[in-house]
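ok here's FAD/NAD(P)-binding protein:
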Amino acid sequence: MSPAAGTRLRPSVVLVGAGPRGTGVLERIAANAPELYGDAPLDLHLVDPHPPGGGRIWRRAQSPLLWMNSTAEDVTMFTDDSVELAGPVRPGPSLAEWARAVRDGRLVVPPDVAADVAALGPRDFAGRRLQSAYLRWVYEDAVAALPPRVTVHEHRGTAVRISDGRDGRQQVWLAGRPDPLPADAVVLTLGHLESQPGTEERQLTDFANRHGLTYLPPAFTADSDLDALRPGEPVLVRGFGLAFVDLMVLLTEGRGGTYATGRDGELTYHPSGREPVLHVGSRRGVPYHSKIGYPPVGDRPPLPRFFGPTEVDALLARPGGVDFRRDVRPLIDKELGFAHYHRLFTAHADRTRMAWPDFEEKYAATEPGSAALQALVSAAVPDPADRLDLDALDHPLDGVRYADGAALQAGLRGHVEADLARRHDPAHSPDLAVFLALLSVYGQLVRLGDHGPWWHGFFSFLASGPPGPRLRQLLALSRAGVVRFLGAGLTVTADRDRGVFRAGSASVPGEWTEARALVEARLPEPTVARTRDRLLAALHAEGARATAGGLLAVDPADGRILDRSGRPHPRRFALGPHTDARGSGAFTRPRTNAPAFRQNDASARALLTFLRDRTAPPVPVPAPPSRSDDAADR
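and the structure:
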């Protein structure tokens, strides 16, 4: 039915993706609406095949064995006064504070997570189903905070296309629905997406099909068909990050195995007999570093120091563009080094030979990686273990060779044990300072667009590793022979003569492992060109710009989607890992000026301003004279 003369359609916004990023944008709309939009009417349509709050990745319908990789006190969805934003701070509880409110009887949770809430301490790692309950509560809290004339409509479906209407309004088409959702603006908060296989993945899939093998391409582990991996069979696993940890859990405890703690505190794994044998390797050959197992103490390093807004402004103003390795990496190295040595000198001065002001002055004057810097550090920091070596951190097994597979197993267990000991010892608190510097660097990099694959991998390796208890389980599985390490520089080939997969590494030259199953333990690359998301693929095909790395290009100021000429679409926004402004996560630890929160606020304010400026009071328009029956007959 057409709107009556002299009236306007209710303004509407479609948010595609109702997981934590979509929830964060909704929270910022609620926070900013009173200032920027007043009490005007607005329809907010949330489109997602999964329930709002958790979305797909954090949905409740997944194994209770899967954990978060951050402690409860380090997870929040709410802004605080550390966040640099134009909108109002709207405080709210961290996951730990929310759980405490539940225990105190101030909040109610679903019965199936009540026991988990009761057992959760601030330094514990919550299960993902519990995080899903927290995210659902945040979503409901954001909806309740919206002005009275804002209505939220939930659509449990999949958006497949956006088209421009004749009046400039957007039309969002949903799978299986004949009519589109009309929208004055659209916000894509799609989260992690599936991708079409690349050339190697297609070749390995074809090889597996021809020889009756099992090949599992990159995917969110909780959605993979692990039933194809048979008990007792060797399985090659390429990837040693968090996707591997999920795989390890689901194929061991998930198949009935158990752990027991001995008097010495060492874990022992008791197999169920249903586990495959996981042969795991990667480019680095080691698991991600353990999460730090002690609370922060003392002053935080004053960040940013060498890589802040001023430096980013200067980079963006360069006429020839920015080369990451040449222009950005030295600033990152200097920032991480500053945080490390600030903490070492101010908290562990007995391990230094120079006053901090003197070191800081000399450090500021030296170039990263220079001989002068090496000489300064050698003179001021006597123990090499207290010196920051980013290359050694990034490639811990470079140049390390083992005599055979047995030596490799012992060597890798030693590496994991040393990492666990260091990450749980506050005597090494410069590691925590570097972690905070990594977060600070990520907050600056979002303004520089797509900076290639190295940074995200490096950040994840140092800052997004598994909880310490998971690595202790990994050690127990290694001792039980359920997990076997392959080493660094992993090479996987398809042996056409033998009809098997073969894996070898630089860590044990000449030694190969054969298997009839291969698993890619990693998420798909967030590439627009090969995405399986129909909506994103259609946007790209119709002119949305993608970076050289395959990410959707957006305006760093407010998240508007750019076309191939670099012009922002006035009504289309995108936030999240598929964009070149991706941050370190949709939620983060409190008081870290999280880039996602800053982006959410900027996009919400741009959206509300756009709606306000285009929602003038209706202008009365005289209705045309009614036609008589006679006129109609003529």
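+1. The longest strand covers residues 568-574.
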